Amino acid sequence: HDDTLAPEGHAVLHIYTPATEDYTKWEHLDRRSDEYKALKEERSQFLWKVLLKVIPDIRERVTIQKIGTPLTHARFLRRYRGSYGPAIKAGEAS
After folding, report:
1. Which of 29, 52, 68, 73 has its CA 20 to 30 A from that of 82?
2. Does the predicted model carry a pTM greater than 0.90?
3. What is the helix (H) or strand (E) element at residue 36, kind and residue range?
4. CA-to-CA distance for 34 and 16, rounded, in angstroms?
């Protein structure tokens, strides 16, 4: 735990899926468009659903939320096709 990442009384939670997101859904979107924002929100719901099972009141406790997409990763992290994390498909690797 690194106490320097957030103000006192707060913490950082970083949750992500492996690099299995279909980049073709994103590659032609303008990150300022309503279509991009809607897809970003839609795709984040999977993580929220998982997180709510572990921390039921997490939505009420969040003070700042940042959602990254493959375009975010390509732009800021220079990741090929926006990959992030291990590119492992379920049932194919361990």
Report:
1. 52
2. no
3. helix 34-54
4. 23
